[in-house]
Amino acid sequence: MGVVAIQSFKNIVSTYLGFFIGAINTLFLYTEFLTDDYYGMVGYMLSLAYVIMPLMSFGMHNTLVKFYSTFKTRVALNSFLTLMLVLPFCIILPLICIVYFSYDTIAAFLSSKNEIIKGYLWHTFIIAIALAYFEVFFAWAKVQMQTVFGNFMKEVFHRVCSMLLLFALHFKIISLEQFMAGLVVIYVLRMLVMSVYAFSIKLPVITFGKVSGLNSILKYSALIIVAGLIATQLLDIDKVMMGQYLNPMRNIAYYNVAIFISTVIAVPQRAMHQLLSPMSAKYLNDRDFNSLEDLYKRSSLSLFVVGGLIFLLIILNINQLYLLIDTEYSVGLYVVLLISVSKLYDSLLGSNNAILFNSDYYRFVLIIGVVIIAIMVLLNIVLIPMCGINGAAIATFIAVFLYNTIKLYFVYRKFKLFPFTMATFKIGLLLLTSALLFYFWEFSFHPIVNIGLKSILITVLYTIVIYRFNLSDDISRVIKKLIKLK
């Protein structure tokens, strides 16, 4: 866990920096500088781009990670890497033609409830292409075990640029239309910077040679498209469907804020996954199941401890946080609670996804994923008109719970690996006790002071218990190092 711990720590720092900047943008600047409808439009546009991004990339970012370590000669590796760069064009170019010739039909369908959507279809499409190739270039760096800069670009760069755009809009330096176009430029620029960095680590040698195992690579890539669509739709399809079922667009703005707050729990998992995936792929290719199991258990415990603390800080301060943002946005309270629980469950699974999608059993998991997405879509169709944004949250919660539980069982059934230990139960008990003790107790000061005092108290008590009872060796080791630094 040495390499994982060091780079994961740096990734967590940059990811939280990104989320801190994103919090300022999402909770304050977007809500103040844009109308609720246009804020909803931005959320819809980015969500739709993320939904179609896996198709644009042709799954190359996952394929590159899975198969990279299997190529042992320079010529074979260069041929493989060339394939990774070229294949996405096989999807992107036909899609460009489809959008160009069918623009009015597609735009009319998507804007049936909200006319504002019609003017930003090309914006969405270009962002999706930029997202796709960014992930390919990031994977290029990942397989060289270099994730820190890529994670910074993924989490911080576009948020800083968006903040600058928002201030430019507020001070009337740019118009609203220029702001929307500027968002597209940000994602394209991020992709280009990532490409330069990735190629500085390993310069591509364009080689159109025979790639061994091509059929397996193409089959995996095709199926991983489905995996990517499953993952992104679990995160973003609810926003896209709200654009079809709810009017006005401000409902997406309220939902977007609630989702952003909950997603903070996933930051450590996202940071650690950058290295868990290539390491799990290597252990699987080498059939080193002892190391794989150790990585599985340690990652689960570490993520549960860190994600659990963030979960407590969110749900125990959420009422005060909504007082700071805008009381209108407090309609997303139950969304925060439900999605926070689902994100904590994601963290609890540790390297589960890395094991599954780098193994030979990914096909079955994809089939299950398709079924789960179908269930989620049906639940959204029923629950969004009935319960609004809370209906979308309920649908997402049910889908995530079912999907994660099946994946947990599948890894146990096929690999005889289980991430939970007695320490997992103890951490869960600590979280439940802390939530019951602190949820209904508030200081009687300004919300900022209340959040600060309560967060300090919870963090100190939680950390003491984790360290005192050594519930996670890796977390205890980090705490010891921090104590020595002082």
TrEMBL record:
It is found in: Cell membrane. The chain crosses the membrane at residues 12-30, 42-60, 80-101, 121-141, 156-173, 179-199, 211-232, 252-272, 301-325, 331-349, 361-383, 389-410, 417-441, 447-467. One of its GO terms (cellular component) is plasma membrane. Its main location: membrane. It is a multi-pass membrane protein. InterPro entries: Poly_Biosynth_Transport (IPR050833). The keyword Nucleus does not apply. It comes from the Bacteria. Keywords: Cell membrane, Membrane, Transmembrane, Transmembrane helix. The keyword Aminoacyl-tRNA synthetase does not apply. PANTHER family: O-ANTIGEN TRANSPORTER-RELATED, PST FAMILY PREDICTED COLANIC ACID TRANSPORTER. This is Membrane protein involved in the export of O-antigen and teichoic acid. It comes from Algibacter pectinivorans. The lineage of its organism: Bacteria, Pseudomonadati, Bacteroidota, Flavobacteriia, Flavobacteriales.
